[in-house]
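Data availability (excerpt). The following record was deposited with the supplementary files.
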Amino acid sequence: MADEIINRVANSKLVTLDLEELYPNGNRVVLDIKDWLFEGLLLREKDFREHVKNHDWSKYNDCYVALSCSTDAIIPSWAYLLITTELAAFAKKVVIGNLELLETVIFNEIINGMEIDIYADKPIIIKGCSNKPIPESAYIFLIEKLQPVVKTIMYGEACSTVPLFKKKRNS
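Predicted structure:
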């Protein structure tokens, strides 16, 4: 039939990678320690250790946790390490920083663990739109991981892509 519409996108060898599909389940939580400091600014070791000892760590079960202090206090490294010794039994991941850094670390680990042989010599589209908080650096991690093995990398949707990389042909 001459008038048949052929969906060339559906029939192509294009592989679409959507980082949103890799987004792991689990609440993201910021643990702000300012309330554990004297006047929000000074860490008194005895009081701080008491807060750590008496805190309900079970509420972070299966959560991703960003440790921070929202005041200008100078926090010694051991304070975050002490908290992490308690969180480690409950949280999926702990970082010192904000939620963006937390997502960046999560995606760095996910992408580093990806098996990429299945993408060898294939044209890849990295899907651009997302409803979840995918950090921009995750896209960079993905390109760094894929570029050595893929044929091409594009960004966007199959109907409207921006070419980013094309493997050079051997002469």
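Summary of structural features: The CA atoms of residues 45 and 79 lie 9 Å apart.
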